[in-house]
Amino acid sequence: QERIKAEAAENDAILSANDAQKERQEALAKIQAEEEKTKSAIEEKDAASKAAADAAKEEAEEEELAKSEKTQIEEEEENLKNAYARAGELEEKLKASQAARQAAEDATKQAQEGEKKAEQENLSEAAAERFAKELAGQQQAIAANATMRLEAAMAERAKAEEQAAEEVKKAASASKKAEEEEQEAKTAGEEAAKAKALMAKEEEEAKTAHEAADAANGREEEAEKKLAAALARAEKEQEEAQKEEEEDRKKLKDANDQFVQASQAAARAQERADELEEQLKAAQRMADAAQARAEMYSASAASNATALEEERKQAEAWKVELERRAAAAEEATAKAREDADVKAKALADAQAAAAESAKIHAKSDFILDELNQTISDLRQKLMATETEKAAAEREESLAQQKQLMAKEELLSIIGGKGVTQQGCVCKSSFTYEDKQHTGCIDAVSNLKAMGKKWCVVEGTCGSSLGDGQFFDTCPPLTKQGCSCRNSFMTKGHLVVGCTEERSQGQPWCKVRETGCGEQNGDGAWWDFCV
Question: Segment Disordered: which positions (predicted)?
Answer without folding.
Answer: 26-131, 154-311
